[in-house]
Structure formats: C-alpha cells, structure tokens
Write a structure and sequence with these properties.
Number of strands: 10
Distance between the termini: 79 Å
Helix content: 55-70%
CATH superfamily of the largest domain: ABC transporter type 1, transmembrane domain
Largest sheet: 6 strands, mixed
Radius of gyration: 35 Å
Strand content: 5-15%
Strand order of the largest sheet: 6-7-8-3-9-10
Number of domains: 2
CATH topology of the largest domain: ABC transporter transmembrane region fold
C-alpha cells in the first residue's frame, strides 16, 4: 500500500518492489545460515566432525550471500530513498505550492508545510532501513520455521500456534499508531508555526519587556504537543505489551513442546538444542516487529501529509488566457467571505488607469481583502475582479503577476545581498535600471552607508537592516519590476519621521503613470489620492475626492476630523 501510494505521488516506479526481493533474498540466506546449526550440532554431538564440514560450508556461503544481498540492496535503498523518493517529493511539493492561492499561506499552513517537508525528507529512510527491518525480520524466522518442519513438524506447529494472535495485536499497534500520529502531526505543525512566530516576534517581545512571559503561545503549543505524545504512548502501550507477551508466550510454548519431545524420547537432544538456540535467536527480532511496524506507519503518515498538500487544488487557470488591455482595476458586485465570516458584499469600485485610490474605513472593513482579491490571493465568491477589462480568473498566473507589484508593511527579504533582493523584481534588469529604481526608492543613500554597499548581506528576513531600510528595498524591487498596477498596504504606517519622508517620496514616484490601490492610514496619503473609497459593512459607503467627501459631511468627514485631531495630540509635561 505504501509503495503504491509513493508511486502514485511520484508518478513513476520507485524500485522498492525490487528492494523487497533483495531483502527477502538476504533474509532467506540468513535463515538458511542459522538453520544449518541443526545438522552441525547433530554431527558434532554424535562425534561426526567431518559430517559437520559440508554444513559449515553451506553456512559460510549463506552468510556471504546474505551479506552481499544486504549490502547491494541497502545501498540501492538509500539511493531510492534519498534521490528517487524524498528529493522528488520535496520538489513536487515546492512545485505545487508555488501554484497554490496566496491566501493559502496562513501561519498554521506554514507550520504544516514545514512539518510535511520534514516528513518527506524522513521518508528517504524507508527503502533503506524500515523496509529492510520489516522484510528480514519476517523472512529469516520464516525460513527457520520451514526448516523446522523437516526436523519435527510438532515444533513447527508450536512455532506457528500463536502467530494469528500475534498478528491481531500487531495490527492493533498499527491502527493505534495511525490515529496517534495524525494527532501528533497536527500538534507538531502548530509547534512549528509557533516557533516561527516566537523567533520573528523577538524584537516586539523584548521592546515590551516580555522576554520571560512572551512565549506563552509557544509554551502552550509545546504542552499540547507533549500531551498528544503522551496520549499516543498510552494508547500504544497496551497493544504493544500484549504483542510482546504473545511473542514470549510463543517461545515458552516451543520450549515446553521441545522438553516434552526429549523427555518422551521422540526426538534427538541435538536437534532440540539447535532449534531452541534458533528460537532464542529470533525471538528478539520478532518482538521488534511491532516497533518496526510503527516505522511503516510513520512513512504512511508522511505520504498522507504530502498527499494532502499535493491534492490541495491550485487556483484554476484558463485554457486560453486573455491579456489585459490596460491598467484599469474594477470590482463588480464582489462578494467574499472567509469560511463563515462575510467580508465583502456587493462591492463595486472602478480604479481608472494612472490613478491612486485610497481605501479607508474601520478595522475589519475589508480594505486589505480588496487589494488581495486584485492579486487573486483567492477567487471571489460572487461578482468579478477585472484588470484591463479582463477577469483575473481569465489570466494565467504569470500574466497576472506581471501586472501587479505588492508593497506591504511586512517586508520579507531573502538572506542574500541587497542587490540580489532588489533584482528579484526583475532578474534580467541591467545595472542602470537597477540603480535608477534604487534612486527612485531612496535606497541609494542606504547602500552608500552599508559596509559592503550593494554586496552587503541583509540577514535572515532582512534582520541587518532597519524597518525603513527594508521598506526601501521592497519599493526598489517593485519599481524595478515596473508593473502597471501597484497594491500598497500603507507602507509608512510604522516608520520614523526620516524614513517616512523618504518612503513617502518613493511611493509618490511609484504612483506616477501607475494604477495604485493603497490601504491608507496616513492623512497625507489619503488627501493626495485621486479618489477615496470609504468601506463599511463590506461595501463602498462613500466614494470621491478629498474635498468632495469633506463637503458631504458623511462618514469620511467624521473619520478625517477624528484622525486630524489625533495627529495633533502631544505628550505634555505635568503641571
């Protein structure tokens, strides 16, 4: 089943069926090697030392054949596991993920993706280790049991008597493990997302003086993961213990039957001694069969996680994509909700080419959702979003992304140089184009004071740069891309005065000859917009220019008055 699932996900044969044959060969040869102990002891105990020699040769050949088969098959297994399986699964995951809706990438999904990627890598151990352990553990003792049948069929019956009961508890261990690992996987995904959150939030936590108490969410996730692990162990302990009892009871039964046969004079002591030695030799690996089976279940859980992501449908793309005519952005009777939470309802908005539209309104009004629907983070539930007269659902992803540049408050930079981070906007740009974009973004002055200039590493997530410097890199990247539509989630909201002035100037330059939708908080940004859309209850409540909306004395006028008053607040000393 696991092999079939792996081949379905990989889209090609894995070679693991050949692995099973190789491990069976190694296990049978190993079983034959140990089975020669019966005729060897029989010859030695009767004084026929020369008669033991052929069997010793058979044992040596069997051991050599087992070792060679194991060496060849194991090496091939590691190659299959690492190169043909885990690497291919990881690449398929990466290839699929880049086509998923941008709205799919929540914090929880990021943790899940990290967990599944790790599980896909760990699956590489299955062909070379887990499959080997399971196969050899079964085939070697099975070979000994077959040989026992030629010595005394009654001992064979004793060997096999408790096998059905052992299989029952083995399957129970598997079923328990399957359910527990699903729960553990979910809790581990949560821990992964919380670790990322905890690492990224260090500056905020330390600034708030919460270095000791600021990790409650991570601690809660760790406690939940511990509880899930404990529950998993408790559930698996009983069937695992019963399986071990059955294995040991099987050995006890074989010993009792062997003693009875010897005392009754029905078989030779040499044969019984040899068979009891073999039974002792194989009791331990058989007792480990259930834990090895847990490794099989771990592999199955890993494939289930990969399958779950690979079967997540990407946004559908048209068979015949249509290019946009211009940079006009339109929303027509748009409805959208997050599950059972309505956000937009019948929203209609027209953003002419080369204009700036400021989106204002209370928190939760859907401002950011409007910009993200333009970038097709998700598909609308009703209505249409059009760019250049073409529904975004009628463009392929590459065409749509060429039309759009996104600048948000949360800037992520890759752990490489300043220049490489800007070039992501257009990798084939010339040096002159890159320098021009940097000049417009007010990034040149930042580069001038960096120790290695353009070659300065920005650190993980841009940690070596300030927030304002990261924003300038992000704007330079967007300018270099030179997309006709720009989506801004007010990029100056959290900046100091100097950086705000520089970034605001860069944004004004970016707005020239481009269609801009901006989620606006700064009064200067709002007032300079060509049109202002006031959102409330999922609709456009008011639409017009700054003077028009002030004159109407509606919701915008009240909003402007409240913001203007707040902007004049000052902290004064106590009298």
């Amino acid at each position: 089943m696991i092999i079939r699932q792996a081949e379905r996900l990989l889209g090609a044969p894995t070679g693991m069926r050949g692995q099973i044959l190789g491990y069976v060969t190694a296990g049978v040869c190993q079983g034959v090697t140990f089975a020669t102990l019966v005729p060897v002891l029989r010859a030695v105990l009767t004084g026929d030392v020369r008669g033991a020699l052929p069997w010793l040769i058979v044992a040596a050949v069997g051991a050599l054949a087992s070792g060679v088969a194991m060496w060849i098959t194991s090496n091939k297994g590691y190659a299959i596991g690492v190169e043909r399986s885990s690497m291919t699964l990881a690449r398929k995951l990466a290839s699929h993920v880049v086509h998923l809706p941008l709205g799919w990438f929540t914090k929880a999904r990021t943790g899940e993706l990290l967990t599944v990627m790790g599980a896909a890598q760990s699956f590489g151990n299955f062909p070379g280790m887990v499959l080997q352990q399971i196969t050899v553990t079964v085939t070697a003792p099975a070979t000994v049991v077959v040989v026992t049948a030629f010595v005394d069929w009654r001992l064979t019956v004793a060997f096999l008597a408790l096998t059905p009961l052992g299989y029952v508890f083995y399957r129970r261990v598997q079923r328990t493990s399957a359910g527990s690992q699903a729960e553990e996987g979910a809790s581990l995904s949560d821990v992964s997302s919380r670790v990322l959150e905890f690492a990224h939030a260090q500056a905020v936590l330390r600034a708030a003086g919460r270095t000791e108490s600021g990790w409650e969410s991570l601690d809660s996730a760790l406690r939940a993961d511990r509880s899930a692990t404990v529950r998993s162990l408790n559930k698996g302990n009983a069937p695992m213990a019963w399986y071990m009892v059955v294995v040991e009871a099987g050995f006890a039964l074989v010993s009792v039957v062997a003693a009875w046969l010897v005392l009754d004079g029905q078989t030779r002591i040499a044969d019984i001694v040899a068979l009891l030695i073999l039974a002792v030799r194989f009791t331990e690996p058989v007792s480990l069969l259930a834990p090895y089976g847990t490794g099989v279940q771990l592999a199955a859980t890993a494939l289930d996680g990969v399958d779950r992501i690979l079967t997540t449908p990407p946004l559908p793309e048209p068979a015949t994509p249509r290019p946009p005519r211009d940079a006009r952005v339109e929303f027509r009777d748009v409805a959208f909700d997050y599950g059972d939470k309505p956000v937009l309802s019948g929203l209609t908005l027209d953003c002419p080419p080369g204009t700036m539209t400021a989106l204002v309104g209370p928190s939760g009004a859907g401002k950011t959702t409007v910009t993200r629907l333009a970038a097709r983070f998700w598909d609308v539930d009703a209505g249409a979003v059009r760019i250049g007269g073409v529904d975004v659902r009628e463009m392929d992803n590459e065409t749509l992304m060429r039309q759009i540049a996104i600048v948000s408050q949360d800037v992520y930079l890759f752990d490489t140089t300043v220049e490489e981070n800007v070039r992501i906007g257009r990798p084939d740009a010339t040096d002159a184009q890159l320098r021009a974009a940097a000049e417009s973004a007010r990034l040149t002055e930042v580069v001038a004071r960096l120790p290695l200039g353009w070659a300065t590493p920005v650190g993980e997530g841009g940690s070596n740069l300030s927030g304002g410097e990261r924003q300038r890199v992000s704007i330079a990247r967007a300018l270099l891309k030179d997309a006709p539509v720009v989506l801004l989630d007010e990029a100056t909201a959290a900046l100091d005065g100097e950086n705000e002035a520089a970034v605001s100037a860069a944004l004004r330059e970016m707005s020239v000859d481009r269609t801009v939708l901006v989620v606006a908080h700064r009064l200067s940004t709002i007032a300079s917009a060509d049109q202002i859309a006031v959102l409330s209850d999922g609709r456009i409540q008011e639409l017009g220019t700054h003077p028009e909306l002030l004159a109407s004395e509606g919701a915008y006028s009240a909003f402007w008055a409240a913001r203007s008053q707040a902007s004049n607040w000052q902290i004064a000393p106590s009298p």
